[in-house]
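Case study.
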Amino acid sequence: MERLQENLPLELVLSKLTAGIIDYGAGNLASLMICLKQLGYAVKVSDDFNVLNSVDIIFIPGVGAYPAAMKALHQKGLVSYLREQARLQRPIIGICLGMQLLASASHEFEYTTGLDIIPGEIISMGPSKWHIGWNTVETKASEMALMSSNGGIFYFNHSYRYEGPTKYQVGLSQCPNTIATIIRKNKVVGLQFHPEKSQLAGRILLKNLILELVSNA
Amino acid sequence: MKYCKFCLQPDTRPNAFFTDGVCPACLYSDLLKHVDWEERLEVLKNIFANNPRKKNQFHDCIIGVSGGKDSTRQALFLRDKLGVNPLLVCLSYPPDQVTDRGVNNLSNLIDLGFDVIVSAPAPITWRTLKMEGFYKFTNSFRSTEMALFATVPQIAIKYGIKLILWGENPGLQVGDLKTLGRTGYDGNSLRHMNTLSSGHDWMIECGFRKSELIPYSYPLLEEFETHDLQIVYLGWFLGDWSHLNNAAYSCGYGLEMRDYGSEKIGDLYGVTALDEDFTPINQLIKYYKFGFGRATDYVNEEIRIGNISRERGVEIVKTYDGSFDDGYIERYAKYLSITTEKFWEEVRKSVNKELFQILPDGTVARKFTVGVGLE
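After joint prediction, the assembly is written out as follows.
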């Protein structure tokens, strides 16, 4: 039960939108599906381009290792598809490993090239080694959709992080050094944390972010 | 309301029953003068010898830690003096409650080389439960203390570790008699303590699902028996166990203390509840309900040890119990999503009207005389 939810108008225009979750055999999609459905979306899980072409926003989920995830995306032809969709300015949100896949490359296990949609590389967390649990995120003032999520508490579980140009870093966390936990280029956004596992704070962020990404096409 | 003859324990403390005008903690403290500490150490060593770790296990026992003075001392004592490998289990406060100091102190334990498991309950459920607890009992800690105590046996069951160590025996060292076990160190009766015995039916009544309340559910007696869990109070084995000694010991190993004046919050040495700043408010409310606060607890310990006289204790308690800082209250009210006016309105409702009177300007004034009681 989350009492605070009662104050929020979560329905509105949302019910007409469809969210597509990329199915590339990685990770647990159930919590993301449930979360998006609670927000009022229709949800389609697919690796079929025709289905993914029909949705309003594409989610790249991800739990697991970088090299295996990229391999799966390559095998399904999703790498070139996603790059094309980003060029076409379609809204895409990557979550956790899905965010990291958006970057140019990763050093996890072995050097692996990524989707290269947002310039930057994925490197080890360094001395702190991992980042598991609840932490706050400070969002950049220019990101209007993220404004009400500034200072929000989200659930993290990762041991690699994004390193890249500051202009793509729109959300930061302390761990204890500052790390980028939300990255963005045009209509493609990467979330290092799991909004779908972050209670109300996660749903508020998703709601505002999705509305912004799909509205000013 | 009556006070203990020797210290400043009032008989208004829940579950405390006096004998010939003396509180249980003083009676116990008197017994301590004749204790053979070497013998107790042998008892402790035997406990570990009789509960060897299972095959393929790395840890001999679990300690519930916050990272504060008691947990740091316990962890170091077990590892460095007894040569056992404890698994430290911490229930962490969510980011909007935990202090940087608390985070640093837990990191300090990891830096000292200990294995630490952190249980991190969902922040909104946590906060909503605190709000409900405040409205229902004027005690937002009802739920969080449940979680604090429940996490440790939960992890013990998960990891197949039988021995659980807590620090203070609330029955002996504070006087909550319901928690007394078969021996001075047996903690399996902890489930009868005031907070834990209240259960979590009230949370269910508030509309929470059982699945949301897992971190707040103390394992059942049957589960304790199935997994052969044994809670042991380490404080019983340490002759110099006290707030101050534990703090002094732990500060040498990197414990970070409060660095501002105790007068604001009645924490005389700045060494308690380091990991968050709402406890002082709860101590204030406890004072309004039962007539004793944090300063009384400090002072009683010092009187029993013989560091200060009862007269000096009266002075200290008069000055510091019931003291508070507006800044703390503002932050607490903000966390509970209420105004400070609403906070005070609720607190005044819970004030024990036999012990206190509420003056026309809203301040709470005690009717009793510290050290004497109610006339």
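Observations recorded in class. Chain B is about 45% helix and 10% strand. Residues 141-159 of chain B form the longest helix (19 residues). We will return to this complex in the next lecture.
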